[in-house]
Amino acid sequence: MSTTATAFDPQTLEGLLTDGGKVLTAPDDLAAYGCDWTRIYDPAPLAVVLPKSTEEVQAIVRYANEQHMALVPSGGRTGLSAGAVAANGEMVVAMDRMNRILDFNANDRLVQCEAGVVTEQLQQYADEQGLYYPVDFASAGSSELGGNIATNAGGIKVIRYGMTRDWVLGLKVVTGAGEILELNNGLEKNNTGYDLRQLFIGGEGTLGFITEATMKLARQPSNLTVMVLGLNDLSNTMDVLQSFRSKLDLTAYEFFSNEAIAHVQAHAEVPRPFETECPYYALLEFEATSEGVMEEAMALFEHCVEQEWVVDGVISQSEGQAEKLWQLRERISESIAPHTPYKNDLSVRISRVPEFLNEIHSVVSKEYPDFEIIWYGHIGDGNLHLNILKPADMEKQEFFKRCETVNDLVFEIVQRYEGSVSAEHGVGMVKKKYLGFTKSAEEIAVMKGIKKVFDPNGIMNPGKLIDSD
Ligand code: 2HG
Ligand code: ZN
Fold first, then answer.
1. Pocket test residue of 38, 39, 137, 346 for ligand 1, highest count of atoms within 8 A of CB
2. Which of 108, 170, 321, 450 is the residue whose CA sits 20 to 30 A from 233?
3. Signal peptide position in this chain (predicted)?
């Protein structure tokens, strides 16, 4: 079917929005709502619609089915795989006005939210209740819950708390066929066959739109303490991880290269953690719940130094210091953004990370010796962010084209290591053509069959994740 509407009349659509939703068609709005943080594609939506209720979303989906109109869901648009890009005359369905926290129950530790609730808003709300929403990442101030769920967002605390999927106990969705489904109703246990909720989590809006979610909250962590350690050898990051993990429950185990720190220093004036310069750094975090835990952490640090795994290190003595040390990791992405990075978000089993990284590094640097390669990521989850920076004198399109030529080599390594071409950023438009490096043809065929069930006319976020046959 055609994914572009032929005769679109904003007033007809607005007439269907009986709860106060609205339609935008001004060029500035189209430009803003038509793209995410990927910045590879030029935004070209037909219009933007901002519904106020699930029933309005249902009316929009039914209208789109009648009109053969493609729909693109839009949350905070902080994605990095072009999952929320409208570059082909689609209608953007933006959840910004569905941003209310609807209900909270302290006994259940559940909070019911509309899809447009901003991640930080949920984190703050949980804090006010004396609880904790643990999914966290640098874009928490802009990203919206519906988008987090649709992309199964990960972030910096996955080693302890898992991905967004682990916190969703209920969903309200509008399917591509225009049906409203209420899935799982906040139940912790519900063993009644297929769990359709899980298909919408990480489904990238290709099956339907999430309009509400019931999220689980955790107890607040206490006295989070951060260590940054300098290492000479990448393989030692795994020795250090195993040592610390054997005695402490880590809430984070992150990694970044010396080149990454140099960019943060230049961009954000964040000081180095210590004088000694090392090729690699690990950042770990744990709850220092007692003096004993702190002593244990220091003993582990000394052990790692004795083994010559760690060259130098620093430990936070206050919340403020912990936050400063986190900036070394959390501000990398924004610091390299001016260099138009080409991004890959890869994962393998954690034991294989060092050899995997080294192999990819040598392939990319052999092919493009003049390109700067920046490595960082959630190494405790086996998740590495590979960013290749654009040389200042090279055209953006030319640069991306060259990076794509090396992708086949990179993804061949991913496939050989049985890893993933997208660990946490999703597939969207950017990684769609590489899906076969991680999923088998049979698995992709089943995914297409599932899409057909929920979205028979192929109007939901077409061109993302998989093509409907
Ligand atoms: C992070 O871990 C984000 O900082 C962004 O997932 C990664 O910019 C990137 O490549
Ligand atoms: Zn990340």
1. 137
2. 321
3. none
Does residue 385 have its Cβ closer than 6 Å to ligand 1?
yes
User: pLDDT tens digits for 250-305?
Assistant: 999 999 999 999 999 999 989 999 999 999 999 999 999 999 999 999 999 999 99
Q: ipTM exceeding 0.95?
A: yes
Q: Using the 8-state DSSP alphabet, how is residue 90 labeled? A: P
Question: How many C-beta atoms surround the C-beta of residue 88 within 10 A?
Answer: 16
pLDDT the model gives residue 39: 81
Protein residue with least CA distance to atom 6, ligand 1: 155
Single out the residue in 170, 186, 219 at which a domain terminates.
Answer: 219
Residue 2 CA to residue 427 CA, distance in Å, equals 23
Query: Where is the domain boundary, 219, 253, 281?
Result: 219
**DSSP one-letter code for 422:** B
Hey, which of 156, 264, 332, 431 would you mutate to test ligand 1's pocket, going by the most ligand atoms within 8 Å of its Cβ? 332
Ligand 1 in contact with 387 (CB < 6 A)? yes
State the pLDDT at residue 6.
56
Shared domain check, 298 and 270: yes
Quote the number of domains for the chain.
3
CATH value at residue 415: 3.30.70.2740
Could you tell me if residue 65 is inside a domain? no
pLDDT tens string 319-376: 999 999 999 999 999 999 999 999 999 999 999 999 999 999 999 999 999 999 999 9
Boundaries of domain holding 263: 224-333
How far apart are the CA of 241 and the centre of ligand 2, in A?
A: 18
Q: Which two tokens stand for residue 385?
A: 């962010």
Residues 362-421 have pLDDT tens digits of 999 999 999 999 999 999 999 999 999 999 999 999 999 999 999 999 999 999 999 999
Q: Is residue 106 part of a domain?
A: yes
Closest ligand 1 atom to 156 CA: 2
Residues 215, 232, single domain; the answer is no
* Ligand 1 neighbourhood includes 112 CB (under 6 angstroms): no
Query: Does any domain span residue 177?
Result: yes
Kindly provide the residue ranges of all beta strands, DSSP E only, lying in 186-341, ordered along the sequence: 208-216, 218-219, 224-231, 250-257, 280-287, 312-315
pLDDT confidence band for 469 (50 / 70 / 90): confident
* CB 138 near ligand 1, within 6 Å: yes
Where on the phi/psi map is residue 185: left (φ > 0), alpha (ψ -120 to 50), or beta?
A: left
Beta carbons within 10 angstroms of residue 354's beta carbon: 17
In a domain, 251, yes or no: yes
